[in-house]
């Protein structure tokens, strides 16, 4: 048995409860990881509250799309890692808030990357790399990123600017300087988009709370506008993009390589013990915590 934070039901942060669960054995193409750090993201909050019904989450489920730790068992068909190896894992089937997790998507943790960053990267890195590929933005084009100061937004900003793309990032006024340091042109998300943003070639909505109709106008149509979480997107012809399991490992590896070579830096994270997952959710929900949270296991 292993300690985990389970969902005792749907609702406020206090539905997160520490319990003993059986992590099970890895399947042929899976590994089992002894978790050191687990990332917390906004989708976890939506799943916990019951606002988002997805990913097969039910009472008893363990949340967590990302973690980093040490391999402790591998399936029969796994040849690229062995027990003792350090890895970061992307968990579309969830399970990261635990001492032990079974994973089907992993990348080696480079020695130069901290445990906290390795755990904070997989879900937002996968999403950023995936959407930039889907949008097909190229050098010289202008990309509007809504939510440019968030976990996905900061990664997408850096990968896009490194590829020669001009990035306009809609962010909270307080985040403007940090956004400019990443190479983007910040605009204040509290102001109407139509008044502050020129026409753009493509839009990544990594906020879920923006004026998507205005974004579609600025991009000259919905074809190159993608949202990660706004359910109104499809009504406007905007793609609501979810995980691409075929390419997820490659996407995480791309982001991890950028982290390792120093061309990508993550927002600073705050570490909290696994047993304080409920406090982490409460702090994120109230706005008292504005950093990325990683749970220490
Ligand atoms: N579909 C997928 O595969 C997938 C994968 C990963 C994430 N997601 C979703 O994508 C979204 C971003 O994830 P994340 O981890 O980057 O979240 P995050 O770190 O919380 O970032 C969200 C950012 O959006 C900003 N924001 C809030 N209202 C805004 C507005 N009106 N205009 C522009 N920006 C605004 C926030 O700013 P403040 O701090 O000022 O509020 C924050 O910087 C979340 O909704 C998440 O659930 C989806």
Describe this structure in words.
The protein has 297 residues and is of the alpha/beta class. It has 2 domains: 2-121 and 266-296, Medium-chain alcohol dehydrogenases, catalytic domain (Quinone Oxidoreductase, Chain A, domain 1, Alpha-Beta Complex), CATH 3.90.180; 125-240, 3-Layer(aba) Sandwich (Rossmann fold), CATH 3.40.50.720. 27% of the residues lie in helices and 26% in strands. It is built from 9 helices and 15 strands. It has helices spanning 42-49, 115-120, 122-135, 151-162, 176-181, 193-196, 212-218, 248-260, 277-286; strands spanning 2-7, 16-21, 31-40, 66-74, 86-90, 100-103, 105-108, 142-146, 166-171, 185-188, 202-205, 225-227, 239-240, 269-273, 292-296. Helix 3 packs across helix 4 (151-162) and helix 3 (122-135) packs across helix 8 (248-260). The structure holds NADP nicotinamide-adenine-dinucleotide phosphate (NAP). NADP nicotinamide-adenine-dinucleotide phosphate (NAP) binds at residues 41-43, 123-124, 127, 146-147, 149-153, 170, 172, 189, 206-210, 228-229, 241-243, 290.
Q: How helical, in percent, are the residues?
A: 25-40%
Based on Cα principal axes, name the global outline: globular
Please give the count of helices.
9
CATH superfamily of the largest domain: Medium-chain alcohol dehydrogenases, catalytic domain
Question: What characterizes the major β-sheet?
Answer: 7 strands, mixed
- Given as residue ranges, the uncertain stretches (5+ residues, pLDDT < 50) are none
- CATH architecture of the largest domain, please? Alpha-Beta Complex
Number of spatially distinct domains: 2
- Rg from Cα: 19 Å
Sequence of secondary-structure elements: EEEHEEEEHHEHEHEHEHEEHEHE
β-strand number: 15
Mean pLDDT: 97
Distinct small molecules bound, one entry per kind: NADP nicotinamide-adenine-dinucleotide phosphate
Strand percentage: 25-35%
Structure class: alpha/beta
CATH class of the largest domain: Alpha Beta
- How far apart the termini lie comes to 15 Å
The CATH topology assignment of the largest domain is Quinone Oxidoreductase, Chain A, domain 1
